Amino acid sequence: MEIVLILVGVVVGTLSGFFGIGGGMILVPTLILLGIDIKTAIGISIVQMVFSSIYGSYLNHKKGSLVLGEGIWVGVGGFIGGGFGAYFSDMVPEQILQYLFLSLLIFALYRLFSAKLSDTNEVKILSPIILFMVGSTIGVFAISLGVGGSILLTPILAGFLHYPIKKAVSAGLFFVAFSSVAGLFMKLSTGIIDLEKGIYVGLSSLIGVYIGIWLKEHVSSSEHKLYLLVTYSVALLILIKKMFIG
Fold first, then answer.
1. pTM for this predicted structure
2. CA 213 → CA 11, 105, 140, 235, distances in Å?
């Protein structure tokens, strides 16, 4: 199982760096497919997101694609919302979590498909209060399902606020660093988390993050969007198979 978790970590880390995601959208369905229950899978996913998002944000900042500024306000909101989200996931039945996760995947695919991504450098400036509210709302919903929330944040930044796609992706991963750390603290306080498996996946994901960020610099925005749609379509099919076919 350890070797499988390491391989999964590398793959998920690559996707995390490339798409600016925490990786939970792919990792949670994959762990469920491996026979791990969804609540344990969510805990492992949160540990992995802490590793990949912090390291990925460091690499993005070094490359100049991460502009901290407004991202701090969204991140602080994500930190607070993520703490509540982790507590919420322990109170909700497993079947409801699965249906919420399925709904999130479908919504993400729709938003990504319909979003008009921009490659310009023009960035709309928003009030810190609005950014904080957006971050906290996404944080509650995302961490309760074991995902970082960038799959919701990135289409908002790129599609509605006209962020350049690669900067939106970097900001999304930065947001995950806040929300996942809050989620980890809350999970550790309840004792419902498999740290050993999470560390296996998290450490191996660092290799993938480096690869993913390198790849991100060598594709166009339209290719980026297409690959993201394909990736989440696969995750959706995996989850549907587990829930309705077995």
1. 0.75
2. 13, 23, 27, 21
